[in-house]
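Hi R.,

Quick one: here's the Fe2OG dioxygenase domain-containing protein sequence you asked about.
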Amino acid sequence: MMVPQSCLMWDGKEGWESVYRSVPDLVVATCTAALAAEIAPPSLKALYTRFPDNAADLLRDGALLVQLLNPAEVSTVLHQLSTQKTDKKAPRRLDHSQGNGYAGEYADLTKPLPDLLQRCQDAARKWLIDHAGPLCEVKRKETRGGTDVTVTMSGKDALDKSKALLLRYGLGGINFAHRDSCGDFQALLLLSQPGVDYTGGEFYLADANPPFETQPFPFAAAGELLLFRGRQGHGAVEWKHGMQEVKAGSAKVTRRVAVGFFQ
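And here's the predicted structure, written out as tokens:
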């Protein structure tokens, strides 16, 4: 079945001045219900088989790209996201004045996640637990009874209690190198088509210590899942991660949209 290219485009508000509260304002929702209904979403077991047999490349290089969804399945995710709400907080912007980047924003997705997106997250979680070795303990700040406290949890619990983010970048978008307060590993599912919706925008890992070497991991297609080390984890390298500048693709509107797991 041919998937309309519009399913990978944007049909939302332009500019960054509006305070977006729901996914339809952030992600294109041009796929019809009929189109989505024609696609039998893959099972958790089927998604798991799309991962490699071991995590050697991930542990050696710090990141691993997996073609997790095909174009029709990406369209299903976009359709399901069109009715998904973000949390009540306004999306956080990336702005040079805050020292975190340019022309981007992100928002927490409410639970439960859309069905196919949840299966993607569950498959990635299971694969990491099965293949990535012992996960380090995580210290995380939580609000309990109106008070911020620091909680220590196992690496497995950190995956279980993590959240998913919707991330959007426009023309000129940049995410400066940083480290999130997450567990050993994070993941990023691309929903835009490189070359069409945008060019540039390469994800990279950066050594936090001299000589500050960086390693790019460019996406090749929508539906790719990038697994990467969120912090030191295994080995002695202390990783930071970021994204290079988003440039125009062949589409009229430049947009790079992704969902982040294990935040």
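Residues 5-261 form a domain with the Jelly Rolls fold (CATH 2.60.120.620).

Cheers,
M.
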